[in-house]
């Protein structure tokens, strides 16, 4: 059955309130469309845990920087809607940019708009590589929460820094939404599923597997007793240097909550982060240590 298609934030809010008045638990899965099995795993998890499931399909301009791929980001709403129906989604929220931001500027640095700032956590790693990115992410997720008024929201661990930023925003701004982390879904060679994988040529696609091999090599060394974070980072760098098409942006061993770089593994959970350009495509991944 095809899910209901909603374009206006007010219509989504009205629907969600009706569902909740009927005693339903409402789950939200925010996406930018171009859906793959990673997204669909979030939808199926929400389907298992919630009475009603909303999936947003919105390519958000405020999280793209100058020269990034906003214009060419893949869009196919009919395909997405069909896949969502098969996964058990009840409603697809697919607003136009004007529905979310009105007719004004979408430049959050212009001083003309209210926005949500991600703080120190949003300045690290991806925030340094893509200035303003997490400002756009926090702002649009806050808008989606206000439109959908969900009980739960589902985010993949593939975008680990985004997950941590959203969890912190929800906690500190008292949103009252339960953020549910979900495991990364991978290709057989370990590459994390991403809508941007479609940009990769066959040669680049083969080279992209180096990101997961690098993370796995670091994790294996950690399991074998290596505690020195810099040695673990060098292990990741060495794996990626063997692939000429992979241009590293950063590797880091970090505290799993604060994302601050560690000198050594200790009692607190740690995470390995990696980002690279494979050809012209920006890819990120992470693994628990």
Automatic annotation (TrEMBL):
Xref: CDD domains: PanC
Is the keyword Nucleotide-binding in the record? yes
Q: What positions does the entry give for (R)-pantoate binding?
A: 63, 162
Pfam families linked to this entry = Pantoate_ligase
Decide whether keyword Transmembrane is in the record.
Answer: no
Cell location: Cytoplasm
Instruction: Give the principal location in a single coarse category.
Output: cytoplasm
- Report residues binding beta-alanine: 63
Catalysed reactions, as listed in the record: (R)-pantoate + beta-alanine + ATP = (R)-pantothenate + AMP + diphosphate + H(+)
Q: Got a GO cellular component term for this one?
A: cytosol
GO MF annotation list: ATP binding; pantoate-beta-alanine ligase activity
Q: Where is the active site?
A: 39 (proton donor)
**Which pathway does it serve?**
Cofactor biosynthesis; (R)-pantothenate biosynthesis; (R)-pantothenate from (R)-pantoate and beta-alanine: step 1/1
Documented EC number(s) = 6.3.2.1
Protein keywords: ATP-binding, Cytoplasm, Ligase, Nucleotide-binding, Pantothenate biosynthesis
| Enzyme category, top tier | ligase
Binding of ATP, residues: 32-39, 156-159, 185, 193-196
Subunit relationships: Homodimer.
Q: What else is known?
A: The reaction proceeds by a bi uni uni bi ping pong mechanism.
Family, as annotated: Belongs to the pantothenate synthetase family.
State what this protein does: Catalyzes the condensation of pantoate with beta-alanine in an ATP-dependent reaction via a pantoyl-adenylate intermediate.
- Can you say what this protein is called? Pantothenate synthetase
**What species is this protein from?**
Rubrobacter xylanophilus
The major lineage groups are: Bacteria, Bacillati, Actinomycetota, Rubrobacteria, Rubrobacterales
This chain is encoded by the gene named panC
